[in-house]
Amino acid sequence: MAHSRDEFEKRLRRIGEERYHDKHPFHHMLHSGQCTPDQVQAWVLNRFVYQAHIPMKDAALMSRCDDPVLRRIWRSRIEDHDGSEEAPGGIERWLRLATAVGLDRDYVASMQGALPASRFAVEAYVRFVRDRTLLEAIASSLTELFAPKIHSERIEGLLQHYDFADENSLSYFRNRLVEAPKDVAFGLQYVLDHADTREKQDAAAAALTFKTDVLWAQLDALHSAYVEPGRIPPGAWRPGEGMAK
């Protein structure tokens, strides 16, 4: 038997309460000022892999959608990250953060120093959105339900504890506080409207769980490589490489 609409929304929100990556030990280190400059750089560099693939994920979703209204609404997500001739997008803002923490923006943009697990997790997410049902693809985006809290905590923690942090370097997070609520309002409405059987509700919940696993796996890899000594895999960024010129 299907959940009621309210019960299903509560089920989705519980996934974030239990599994969102704001609970990962690396984020607690980062937001409380316990990360070294090298660990901050490693986070910025590896997170860029995710940032760079968000528009590709959204383009993959749009390519499967035959509803022009849905495509038009979803298109704003690509513009938010890729930017326009008039305004920078999220990718450019993240590269500003990379420069602020002392990394060379071209080196970060190349993604050549990213951890294998960072690439594998993000590529798995793009494949998921490309290959699963449209409902599952949209449901996987609902981690945005939980993002404003982590962005607010991140802004506060970085400004308090790190010299590189200012309004310019943290502009990505400021902008997402405005962009994410708009995106999630539509995504949540779509999922609640279209997950009208228990089977579809279970699939949507599993999709959201998968996305939390993607985000958690990236931080697990980061923690393993740069917090636990001697665990950096071959070919991945090492402290001192790719510094700003």
Automatic annotation (TrEMBL):
<keyword id="KW-0560">Oxidoreductase</keyword>
<comment type="function">
    <text>Ring cyclization and eight-electron oxidation of 3a-(2-amino-2-carboxyethyl)-4,5-dioxo-4,5,6,7,8,9-hexahydroquinoline-7,9-dicarboxylic-acid to PQQ.</text>
</comment>
<dbReference type="Pfam" id="PF03070">
    <property type="entry name" value="TENA_THI-4"/>
</dbReference>
<comment type="similarity">
    <text>Belongs to the PqqC family.</text>
</comment>
<comment type="pathway">
    <text>Cofactor biosynthesis; pyrroloquinoline quinone biosynthesis.</text>
</comment>
<feature type="domain" description="Thiaminase-2/PQQC">
    <location>
        <begin position="10"/>
        <end position="220"/>
    </location>
</feature>
<dbReference type="InterPro" id="IPR039068">
    <property type="entry name" value="PqqC-like"/>
</dbReference>
<keyword id="KW-0884">PQQ biosynthesis</keyword>
<protein>
    <recommendedName>
        <fullName>Pyrroloquinoline-quinone synthase</fullName>
        <ecNumber>1.3.3.11</ecNumber>
    </recommendedName>
</protein>
<dbReference type="InterPro" id="IPR016084">
    <property type="entry name" value="Haem_Oase-like_multi-hlx"/>
</dbReference>
<dbReference type="InterPro" id="IPR004305">
    <property type="entry name" value="Thiaminase-2/PQQC"/>
</dbReference>
<dbReference type="InterPro" id="IPR011845">
    <property type="entry name" value="PqqC"/>
</dbReference>
